[in-house]
Amino acid sequence: MEQTEQNATHRWIEIQDGKEKFQEIVKMLVEFDERTGRHDYAPLKECHYMRKAIAVGEAEHLRILVCAFPSFLYYVAAELNNCQGRVTTCWVHEDGIESERAEKRDEPDHPVHGITCMSDIFRRNEEIGEKERSELGTLLRSLMDRADGTAKDVLEQKGQAEEKKGKAKEKGEGGASRQK
After folding, report:
1. Smallest Cα–Cα separation from 151: which of 4, 26, 14?
2. Structural domain boundaries of the chain?
3. Helices (H), the chain
């Protein structure tokens, strides 16, 4: 999936189709973190528990907004709001399944092509407009605004990394030709 600066900074979707599948994905990742102990050394441990709440909350009480970044990354802003209270959180989700599909594109029978992933869910949902965005709560809007700024930083960093790769490749090729 090609991603441009415009859709990385401005294309936000709200997950409505596939919300339960999204929760399953997050739940698997949360459980993996718990089994491996990764959640114990996270900079903000409470974020793990906020994602867990999103994963197990009733779907009708969830609002999930997603913005695509380059390189199979998605910024997720999610809110669980029920009679017990409200949890609003955000994180960057790396879609390892879509990344693996890209590597296995010449192997159409590979099992990775049959697994539903974040990219599939993202593609099935529609972009939210400015009107919908303006009607969101202040906290969700601020998380989205932060992501829009972060997306620009990610694009700049990716461009710098690609530039360095290109220079290193040129240098490597130049070095190889000098050795001949």
Report:
1. 4
2. 5-174
3. 5-10, 19-36, 45-56, 96-103, 118-124, 130-134, 138-179
d(CA 112, CA 13): 24
Q: Is 23 exposed, middle or buried (0-12, 13-18, 19+ CB in 10 A)?
A: buried
168 vs 94, higher pLDDT: 94
Q: How does DSSP classify residue 20?
A: H
Least confident of 43-47, 75-79, 100-104, 155-159: 155-159
Type of residue numbered 88? T
Using 50, 70 and 90 to split pLDDT, how confident is the model at 70? confident
- Sheet of 62-69, strands arranged across: 12-14, 62-69, 73-82, 85-94
Q: What pTM value is reported for the model? A: 0.75
Residues paired with residue 66 on neighbouring β-strands, in sequence order: 13, 76
Long-range contact set of residues 22-26: C-beta below 8 Å, sequence gap at least 24: 22/64, 22/118, 22/121, 23/54, 23/55, 23/56, 23/57, 23/59, 23/62, 24/55, 25/116, 25/117, 25/118, 26/51, 26/54, 26/55
Q: Are 69 and 92 in contact (CB under 8 A)?
A: yes
All residues at 6 or more sequence positions from 96 whose CB lies less than 8 Å from its CB, including other chains: 72
pLDDT of residue 26: 97
